[in-house]
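ok new one. same drill as before - structure tokens go in, u give me an amino acid for every spot. 123 of them this time. try not to just spam alanines like last time pls lmao
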């Protein structure tokens, strides 16, 4: 009979996962467990990796395109403010506030990138 979709049929009975395991954890335990499961793995795969000691190196891709796009937008905003300041030779509180806001966003993004890179090095 032809498979009509859904899960793929596992031909080898030794590879078929037919046993279910369930247990409860506290919120703190859950956070610690989830922190150790890479974003690109499902919970099931993550638990198998953690519990069975899968020796494969887990690669967690970092979406640099997202960060590059944001940095480009922020750079454009800062350039527009700089052009206005250079043209009018004056700066107002709103311009200063915008610049500070954009710089804070840049700092947060770079901290996120460093955190992700450091977590790769530590694991």
């Amino acid at each position: 009979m032809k498979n009509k979709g859904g899960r793929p049929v596992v031909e080898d009975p030794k590879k078929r996962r037919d046993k279910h395991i369930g247990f409860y954890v506290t919120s703190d335990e859950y956070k610690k467990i989830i922190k150790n499961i890479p974003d690109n793995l499902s919970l099931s795969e993550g638990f198998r990796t953690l519990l069975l000691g899968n020796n494969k190196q887990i690669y967690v891709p970092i979406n640099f395109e997202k960060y590059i796009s944001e940095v480009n937008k922020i750079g454009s905003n800062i350039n527009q403010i700089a052009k206005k300041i250079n043209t009018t030779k004056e700066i107002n509180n709103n311009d200063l506030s915008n610049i500070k806001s954009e710089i804070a966003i840049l700092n947060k993004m770079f901290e996120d990138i460093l955190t992700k890179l450091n977590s790769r090095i530590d694991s």
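The mean pLDDT is 78. and btw The two ends are 45 Å apart (CA to CA).
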